[in-house]
Amino acid sequence: MTRDLPPTVRRNRRELAYRVPFVVERDDAPRYRLRNVGDEAVHWVVLRLIGPGFLAPLEPCRLTPGSALEFEVLGTELARATSVQVSWFRPGGHQYLWRVTF
Fold first, then answer.
1. Closest-CA residue to 24 (of 76, 80, 83, 77)
2. Cβ neighbours, 10 Å, residue 82
3. Global pTM?
């Protein structure tokens, strides 16, 4: 006996994957730039530090294609236990999360 997938699962299988629209420029560490390399503006971009270290509070912002958000992460041995979670909304209202490691 075979089971059909629910309609939402079938529909989602046909949609193309959404590429994360950011790159992190690391040339000036511990100052970093989160650059929008996508083709659409994203809004309510928020950064959250996960693990030990310090990230100065930033206001949620809107990033148009090509624009960047500068941030600084301070701490010792960040690569061992620290990451930054980036969250944002696309124009259609869907929220996304992406984790950046050091």
1. 83
2. 20
3. 0.82
